[in-house]
Amino acid sequence: MSDTTTTPTSPPAPAPPPSKGNRRGRKAGPADNSNSEFANFPEVEYFIAPGPRGYPPLTEFLDIWEVDMMRRTDESNKLEHHTALYNSEHLVIRRAQEFQIKLTFNRPYKPNEDKFAVEFTIGSSPQFSKGTYIPVFFTKDRQSAWAGRIIASSDNVITVGITPGTNCIVGKYNLYVAVVTPYGVRRTRPDKSREMYILFNPWAKDDAVFLDDEMEREECVMNEMGIIYHGAYNDVAERSWNYGQFNFGVLDACLFVLDQSEMPIINRGDPIKVARQASAMMNSQDDNGVLVGDWSGDYLYGVSPTSWTGSTDILISYARSKTPVRYAQCWVYAGVFNTFLRCLGIPSRVVTNFFSAHDNDGNLKTDIILDENGRIDRNRTRDSVWNYHCWNECYMSRPDLPQGYGGWQIVDATPQETSDGLYRCGPASVHAIKHGEICFPFDAAFVFAEVNSDVVFYSRRKDGTMDLVKVNRTHIGRMVLTKAPGDETRRDITNQYKFPEGTTEERTVLEKAEEYGCQRIKADPPLADVDLTLPTLEISVGDDFELDLEFVNRSKEKRTVEAYISGSVVYYTGVSGHEFLFRTPTVQIGPQKSVKELVQIESKKYMQHLVEQGNLNFIVTGKIKETGRIITATKLVALHNPKLTVEVSGNAKVNEEMMVTVEFTNPFSFSLEDVNVRMEGPGVMLPRRKTFSLILGNSNLTWTEQFSPLRAGKTRIIATLDCPSLRQVDGQVSFTVEP
């Protein structure tokens, strides 16, 4: 050991915290990532140095008196750009299409002598090189990034036409008019009335979101009232949703979402980047986004996901409070995301996948672990199968992928797994998913697993080794639905995601997916010689019912099955809640005979444990004593909730007063407490809410409200009722408003 002594030293001083401001020397100015901030241009810019008497006056040259943005809904701009429904005091137009403004000068315009430009700015530090400052000239000797022309001239007024670039930034712009003189430039002062919005344009062939199908375009851009499908594969239910993309404040709220994400302004003309960024921002998981997800059943500090009737309340609340809104589940994420996309002009639709796999470990198969006796080992089963899952499709070209992979793209805002460090998913090409090209960005492998996973059952021995028991290759992605364009019926689009089961094309796709890492079980374990079937049931909340199980022995010998019958309240995500039924019968079956096992289910066993989706999941497993084979069967029972009655009265004409009445009868013997009722309708009523502290058992609730339709056409008022004891109660009424 050394006898050298050391002098104690004080610990090093902690490093200073990193500065949140601009790193000096790295770049000239702060990041331009806010569409709510504008740079103020100087009213006068001189080309020359001041003389002995200062700067020369510019008043003797052409002067701007007035700028008419032609922003009224009955004028050509909004009509031709399909933006007349936006409830905004500003001009809203679409890129890659000409719009018009009128300029009034102090004297008649002289083309050979006078020079002027219309300038557009977006963001806090506009630059010509980045496309955030765009001057438009109207003479042949000056080239402009956006096309401009003089359409008409009369006295002191001229009408000009301007065509924004096909890939220009989408957002809120400031407009200036600048007159060029020999001595300098004089421009209009900043004025909020000249602020304007430029959106994506699915009507323009050169735009990346061009959709060449008028009916589909009308549905996926202009329609405000949607239908979101849920429930079970063999018992599909519908939920109406008011997207409200044209409601006052919604467009600003959508732009605020991008501001909150700190997305650079220069990236906001690319629909791929916008959709991907918004996919992360719709959830609050890691970036203070729009919605807080919750599947717990306890919504004391927010709004139950099943209570929402549309997107307007959510987006407006987020923009005002700048904090995430509580609470959401997959259809709420999809509904709000659909509003965002349609509002900015990206064609989109909500899609529901029945029996949707959540591939937790990334092996592209859903693993179910059983113990040696055939009972599910819930501690070791990590993957789950959602009864249904909602996501979005948006339509756009994909120049980053090979030709043919554009069109519908999957985007999903529900936080399931991270992608590039954030909870988001997509855009992933639907064409790529169908053809097994899971190597393409973004998140194609995860989506492929959601619709194509094999459900693989393993039996785990006590020593930890696993035996393959059963492979179900047809359970996942049983049906993919979306709303039919121009109709209130559903449209089955399963064939857009996958080829028919068992076909040559499907086998080819699976082989291709294997090349990119998809791990599939090719072996088929020997089939057990006992079949197990469970009945299809339609049950209402509060009903007693019978579960009739049938064991069929296909062998020529007697079989004994030691069975496990489990009944659980289950979330729609496949996660089990309370187990209300567990039996272990031993079933004797004669050669080539069948035996039925009848199980009585009393409502009092499950009612107090129900979660908002009202699903019961029955799992029957068992071990055949003579052969050691394990058999399994599952059955999901979606309980049907009571309905609201919604009726309207009065003369259905624009601006004439009408009445809407919501009625509900409590069908239970117990009282319902803290009942919230909501209703809204596109073009007729903004969201309204009323709270009832108590509805006694078997008593009625009635709520009547006045409203005045704002525009003509077919519309709908939807209503929901929600309380801790009863979720997902809704009703609606459709009617046509005359001009």
Automatic annotation (TrEMBL):
EC code: 2.3.2.13
Residues at the catalytic site: 330, 389, 412
Keyword Transmembrane helix attached: no
Enzyme class: transferase
Start and end residues of each stretch annotated as Disordered: 1-37
Cofactor binding: number and manner: Binds 1 Ca(2+) ion per subunit.
Binding residues annotated for Ca(2+), in chain numbering: 452, 454, 501, 506
Domain Transglutaminase-like span(s) in chain numbering: 322-415
Keywords per UniProt: Acyltransferase, Calcium, Metal-binding, Transferase
Compositional bias annotation for Pro residues: 9-19
Domain of life: Eukaryota
Pfam families xref list: Transglut_C, Transglut_core, Transglut_N
GO molecular function terms attached to this record: metal ion binding; protein-glutamine gamma-glutamyltransferase activity
Named cofactor requirement(s): Ca(2+)
Reactions the enzyme catalyzes: L-glutaminyl-[protein] + L-lysyl-[protein] = [protein]-L-lysyl-N(6)-5-L-glutamyl-[protein] + NH4(+)
Family label: Belongs to the transglutaminase superfamily. Transglutaminase family.
PANTHER family linked to this entry: COAGULATION FACTOR XIII A CHAIN, PROTEIN-GLUTAMINE GAMMA-GLUTAMYLTRANSFERASE
Protein name: protein-glutamine gamma-glutamyltransferase
